[in-house]
Specification:
heterodimer; A: mainly alpha; about 80% helix; about 0% strand; B: alpha/beta; Rossmann fold; 3 domains; 4-stranded antiparallel sheet
Chain lengths: ~250, ~325
């Protein structure tokens, strides 16, 4: 695990040594700040008395969109850039396992994402100072956002592991995430037989509970399984050098 | 120390290398020669643990890289052909990462980085961003990465590519200085470089080892016939005609000279040394003999002949 921390530290240095991570963090703070403000204004005008149903649900559903917009851009360089620079080949000659390498990368992206999430806290904190409320629905919402982030980062890592082109990696990640997002949106268009299956696979449906302040074990398991699947695919993508070679 | 045992690597239906075997002992610098696409980089990557062979074994300091990949990789330093560097980071940071990945921390890591910087003479630029350095410097940073922690086996893919003559000389001096304590395998296209720095040469062609020997032995083995350069104060055509009649002389080629002397390259018949007879005949003609010297076969010539012969056979 020490090697994963070495990679994580190096990755964070590389991420925040360039402008991309700062820009993404800035955009994340700006958009989530705007959504918080507009959702609050909406709630004050029309929402009634139930904070969870009238405010937090909208806030977290909006934050979720920002997360899905920003994370593929954060993860696109994780492996693709190493492949392009040739440093991936060099890393493979050091005494480090592929899984330690991937763990370090995921950890670094998660740290960056958690920093972004912390940047959204001032809004609720100010609101709490003016108008005390229960933190429980927020814990569920932030827990959901964190798990969604884990899933999106794993997906982005796998996409980044199969190409040296960062734009391709980002587009692949958007494609997969949006597919799992929209898979259950038009129930009329899918047959009765597969509708339950698609519903069970829907990323959208599995986040909805968190946004409403409910932590359901099935949702947690789904997001973790989603992440595990893509981490496994990322591991296989690195292992493919055995038969694919290095272009 | 570095050992390739019957290495074969196939990518899909394409065979990159087949049955490649050789060994490099500690204290030895071996040159890995071959035309483009011969399989040099594939072999180096297998030995460095980048990917496994389809069959055969790669052994570094007694550790088979398939069975004990981490132990084997801990004992080797690899510098790829294209320096693989994080352009946004400083030279020192890059070396610190290498030290951390080789399980060094604290004072030991700092010392290992300092030694690598000193050996490659990069102390002055250690805090510069790698992206701002020239190609020659980047090549040296790549070498420094391989040296961090002083692994006993070094695999250097084209280490002198992109260096100016002074830097290349410095690089050769460094490799020779490292040689007593290390096993070093260098791949190169620059035959002259290999001849200058290597104790032994392994020639790879179309995925097969064609020959493995010391540069002089290889050149000698491939010398088809002894050759002699003859230069005299004489009419060019007359000298060539005379040499053609000397016993033991096979072929005679006239070599143009700018100074009006006659110059010929003579190929002796197998097993014959016609030099004494040539000297006697030229003296008998009353010409002044200026040069009578055997021609050394260079490694480059040997290499080209060997590869050419192999291609003709194929």
């Amino acid at each position: 695990m020490r090697k994963a921390l070495v990679i994580c530290r190096h990755e964070l240095g590389a991420m925040f040594g360039g402008p991309l991570a700062w820009v993404l963090a800035g955009v994340y703070a700006l958009l989530t700040g705007y959504f918080f403000y507009s959702d609050l204004a909406f709630f004050v005008l029309f929402g009634g008395a139930n904070l969870t149903a009238g405010l937090w649900r909208y806030v977290f559903l909006d934050f979720r969109q920002v997360t899905l917009l920003v994370l593929p851009l954060l993860t696109m360089r994780l492996i693709a850039e190493e492949r392009k620079l040739g440093t991936l080949e060099l890393l493979w000659t050091f005494p480090i396992r592929d899984r330690e390498l991937l763990a370090g990368k995921v950890l670094a992206a998660l740290v960056a994402y958690v920093v972004m999430l912390l940047g959204t806290l001032p809004g609720p904190l100010v609101l709490h100072a003016l108008h005390p409320f229960s933190w429980t629905p927020l814990l569920a919402g932030y827990g959901g956002l964190f798990l969604l982030g884990v899933a999106a980062i794993a997906c982005g890592l796998a996409a980044s592991a199969i190409t040296e082109n960062q734009v391709v990696a980002a587009m692949l990640t958007y494609g997969v995430l949006l597919f799992f997002w929209f898979v259950s949106w038009n129930e009329a268009a899918i047959g009765q037989a597969i509708a339950p299956v698609l519903l069970a696979l829907s990323l959208f449906d599995h986040f909805y509970g968190f946004a409403q302040g409910v932590i359901d074990g099935r949702d947690v398991a789904y997001l973790l399984a989603f992440a595990a699947l893509f981490l496994f695919l990322a591991l296989r993508a690195l292992g493919a050098r055995a038969w694919r070679g290095i272009a | 120390m570095i050992e390739a045992r019957q290495l074969t690597k196939r990518f899909g239906g394409r065979t990159a290398i087949e049955d490649v075997s050789f060994a490099v002992a500690r204290g030895e610098v071996a040159g890995f020669l071959g035309p483009n696409g011969a399989g040099k980089t594939t072999t180096l990557r297998i030995l460095a643990g980048v990917f496994p062979p389809t069959s055969g074994q790669a052994v570094v300091d007694g550790h088979e890289i398939g069975a004990a990949p981490l132990a084997a990789r801990r004992r080797l330093g690899y510098a790829p052909e294209r320096p693989a560097l994080y352009l946004g980071t400083t030279v020192r940071r890059q070396l610190e990462l290498a030290a951390a990945l080789r399980d060094l921390s604290g004072a030991r890591a700092r010392a290992a980085v300092d030694v690598a910087l000193e050996r490659t003479d990069l102390g002055d630029v250690q805090h510069r961003r790698i992206g701002t350095l020239s190609r020659g410097y980047r090549q040296r940073v790549g070498l420094a990465v391989a040296l961090v922690g002083d692994p006993p086996a070094l695999l250097l893919d084209e280490p002198m590519a992109g260096l100016d003559p002074a830097q290349a000389a410095e690089c050769r001096r460094l490799i020779r200085a490292l040689a007593p304590e290390h096993a070093i395998l260098i791949s190169s296209h620059a035959l002259a470089e290999v001849e200058l720095v290597c104790d032994r040469v392994v020639i790879l062609h179309q995925g097969h080892v064609l020959a493995a020997d010391t540069p002089p032995a290889l050149a000698a083995r491939l010398r088809a016939a002894a050759r002699v350069d003859v230069e005299a104060h004489a009419p060019g055509a007359a000298l060539a005609a005379l040499l053609g009649t000397v016993p033991g002389v096979g072929r005679v080629d006239v070599v143009p000279t700018p100074n009006g002397h006659a110059r010929c390259r003579v190929e002796a018949e197998p097993g014959r040394d016609p030099r004494a007879a040539i000297a006697t005949r030229i003296a008998a003609e009353g010409w002044e003999l200026l040069t009578l010297a055997p021609v050394e076969t260079s490694l480059e010539e040997a290499f080209l002949r060997l590869v050419g012969a192999e291609e003709r056979r194929a």
